[in-house]
Amino acid sequence: MALELRPNCEYCDKDLPPDAAEARICTFECTFCADCVERYLSNVCPNCGGGFAPRPIRPAREWRPGLSLTKRPASIKRVGLSYSREDIAAFVARIMTVPPEKR
Ligand SMILES: [Zn+2]
Ligand SMILES: [Zn+2]
After folding, report:
1. Residue 73, SS3?
2. Residue 60 Cα, ligand 1 centroid: separation in angstroms?
3. What Å distances lie between residue 46 and 3, 12, 17, 20, 70, CA to CA?
4. CA-to-CA distance for 66 and 44, rounded, in angstroms?
5. How far is CA 45 from CA 2, 50, 58, 60, 70, in A?
6. Which ligand is in closest contact with the Cα of 29?
7. 3-class DSSP state for residue 91?
């Protein structure tokens, strides 16, 4: 299993190409830009309630056989949220004070 490397921020729909240093993911690979994680999500994933980490960058070069961005390309399927902005704000407010390791 490899990360899907989803192509966009689920909150603002900004493009997050596989080499984007600002991509953040939760353990389920819900994907957002660093800006939305900080400004709107307060490190709370609106889908699962978990915290975020920077998404690692898959090597463009095939240092080992079969393991490169060309051989294992990023997903092109854009993902969006199924919750309203109001719902997300309330969800985040409820969880943001609980540290990720206690959620
Ligand atoms: Zn965003
Ligand atoms: Zn999540």
Report:
1. coil
2. 24
3. 19, 13, 21, 21, 31
4. 34
5. 20, 5, 23, 28, 29
6. 2
7. helix
Which residues have beta carbons under 5 A from ligand 1 (an ion)? 9, 11-12, 14, 33, 36
Predicted pLDDT of residue 1 = 82
| Closest ligand by atom to 33 CA | 1
Q: Ligand 1 mean position to 52 CA, how many Å?
A: 13
- How many Å lie between the centroid of ligand 2 and the Cα of residue 85? 16
Element (H, E) at 74: none
pLDDT by residue, tens only, the chain of 103 residues: 899 999 999 999 999 999 999 999 999 999 999 999 999 999 999 999 999 999 999 999 999 999 999 999 999 999 999 999 999 999 999 999 999 999 9
